[in-house]
Automatic annotation (TrEMBL):
This is DUF47 domain-containing protein. Pfam families: PhoU_div. SUPFAM superfamilies: PhoU-like. Belongs to the UPF0111 family. It comes from Streptomyces alkaliterrae. InterPro entries: PhoU-like_sf (IPR038078), Put_Phosphate_transp_reg (IPR018445), UPF0111_domain (IPR052912).
Amino acid sequence: MRFRLTPRETSFYDMFAASADNIVTGSKLLMELLGADVSARAEIAERMRAAEHAGDDATHAIFHQLNSSFITPFDREDIYRLASSLDDIMDFMEEAVDLVVLYQIEQLPKGVEQQIEVLSRAAELTAEAMPHLRTMENLTEYWIEVNRLENQADQIHRRLLAHLFNGKYDAIEVLKLKQIVDVLEEAADAFEHVANTVETIAVKES
């Protein structure tokens, strides 16, 4: 790691860790949604909305700290990109839950549980990785595994689309379900964006 003569604002590390922990909360709510009765989904969506608001607050805190800090632990554009990508993950997960409720989906298609399992694992890995930003050590396996998970998510997404278009669903139902699985796929992409940003930061700091 590069030797620095100037002090750095270190609160960013704690804020990134808090943001990632909140994403784990969101992934658990997604898992809870899978096994919930239709009547319980609105309450889960409300808790997810609260988690998404907490994520927004965490992101705004990072941006505020960025704007008020003279010295940052790594490049400003990377801090902004990392915070934005973490925020995107929560936004997509909250949107997926909200759509399930708004569209009054009675049964999600088989394969969605695999999408959510991938997101849950990516959330755990991301939360475990954020504290390592302090030292930039033990991060390589993190971004390799998240990229592997994103490739897995792509395959699951393609299989889900093939299932939705096999003629067993009516057109309106296809549109509703496709929007949900597409948003979950965007969440997987956002996890990869976070991992790629962490890799970029680690390379710059090495």
